[in-house]
Structure formats: C-alpha cells, structure tokens
Amino acid sequence: MNVVLVAAICGLMYFGGTSKIGYHLTTALGSPIVVGFVLGLIYGQVSQGLLIGASIQLIYLGVIATGGNVPADQALAATIAIPIALQTGMTAEVAVGLAVPFGVLGVFMDQIRRTSNSIWVRWADGYAEKGDRKGIFKCAVIYPAIFAFCLRFIPVFCINLVGSDAVSWLMDVLPAWIITGFSVAGGMLPALGFAIIIITIGRKELLPYFLLGFFAVAYLGIGTMAAAVFGTLIAVLITINARKNKKGAEA
C-alpha cells in the first residue's frame, strides 16, 4: 500500500470531517467508524478497520460540543490511530489508547483555528469600509478554509507518513508491561463512553431500553443488524402506544 496515498487520504478525511461544509456530511466523514471502514477497504482489512473504528467511537458516544466548544476531536483520533493500527497490526485496545491523546490534541488545534478567525474579521472590517463585497466573501469563506486545510491536512499527512515506522519501533523497544497497560486502558475507555451516554440520556424511563439492547448483544449473541431491527420495531411500538395514549387522554 502506498503510504503517501494513505497519508493524503487521512489528511483529506480529517479536513473534510472538521470543515463543517454541510454538517451532515462532515459529521459522518469524521466519524471513527466511517474512517475505519474506508481505511479497512484500502488495507483489505474491513472487519479490523470497523472493529478499531467502533472501539474508538464508543469513547465519544456521549460527547457533545456544547455552544460549539469541542471537548475532544474524534476525527483526529481516528485518522491517526486507525491507519497506524492497521499498518502495524495493533490490537483495537492498544489503538484506543493511542487515539485518546490525539483526540485531546485536536482540541488545541481547533482553538488555533478559532483564534485565526479574528484576523479574517479585522480584514473583513477593512473591506466593509471600502464596500468590497468580494473581499468580505474571501475573509468569510476562502481564507479560513485555506488556513483550516493547512492546519489539519499537513499534520495528519506528516504523522501518517512517518508514524507507522515510529510506532513500530516504539512497540519493539517498550517493555511488555507498558503495552499491557495500554491494552487495559483501551479496554476501559469504551465503558467510559457508555457511562457518558447513559448520563446524557438522563431519563429513567429510557434507560431500560438501553440496557436491554446492551445485554441482548452481549449475552444473547444478537448481531448488529438484528439489534438494529429489534430497536427500530421497539421504537415504532413505543411511538404508536404514545399516540394512542395521547388520543385517549384528549378524548
């Protein structure tokens, strides 16, 4: 596999997943499970790519960008950890441990982007005084997009270009107990994601459905598609009964 091509694809996915150009598309593109699927196709390891992507996704299940403030950058975590994990044969647990620090680093990168916007605003004020509409448009769209592309594409490209070799060397020289520690921590972090989503749900009447789905998959061996079908049917039944109760109360 061409490392340069993979690095470029990861850089483009990170930029696309955080550019906010069409919220529904960018949110999906920056999702770890989507990144895992795409990179899994490239490396011919679709199942492993999805497994790693889903494991990273679990950490960020309940993360909400309140007021636009990004508490963690799942797109950066995915576009760095997943390709390196697929290249080096890293387990999903260790990949999760690798992803978390980059998720935090992405927050600082986003703050740099936000700070740079103050420059474009000042420039736009100058263009507004001159009545230059094209200049205002450039300050509102073109310049921020160029800066964001450089800020997000270049670091991800460079890290993926040399990251796999560095990680492979690091994995060889690190003691076994440290690698085990990463695996244990990586196994615990998805549970933290579940805890956050439970707190986010916050409604006691909905928690039994969440736990029902979890234990059905964990203990009954229900596949993902079956769980999705059962979940959809339960949601439809709840909606129908709620409408009936509402009509009965109005009558």
Which helices and strands, and how do they pair?
Layout: H1 3-18, H2 23-29, H3 32-43, H4 46-59, H5 74-88, H6 92-130, H7 133-173, H8 176-201, H9 207-219, H10 224-250
Helix pairs in contact: 1-2, 1-5, 1-7, 3-4, 3-5, 4-5, 4-6, 4-8, 5-6, 5-7, 6-7, 6-8
Write up what this structure looks like.
The chain has helices at 3-18, 23-29, 32-43, 46-59, 74-88, 92-130, 133-173, 176-201, 207-219, 224-250. It is built from 10 helices and no strands. The mean pLDDT is 78. The chain is mostly helical.
* Euclidean distance between termini CA atoms: 67 Å
Q: Tell me the overall shape.
A: flat
Helical fraction equals over 70%
Number of continuous helical runs: 10
The radius of gyration computed from the alpha-carbon positions, rounded to a whole number of angstroms, is 22 Å
Q: What composes the largest sheet? A: none
Unreliable stretches covering 5 or more consecutive residues: none
- Mean pLDDT across the residues is 78
Strand content: under 5%
Number of strands: 0
Q: Topology as H/E string? A: HHHHHHHHHH
Give me the secondary-structure category: mainly alpha
Brief descriptors of the model:
single chain, 251 residues, mainly alpha, 10 helices
In short:
The protein is an all-alpha fold.
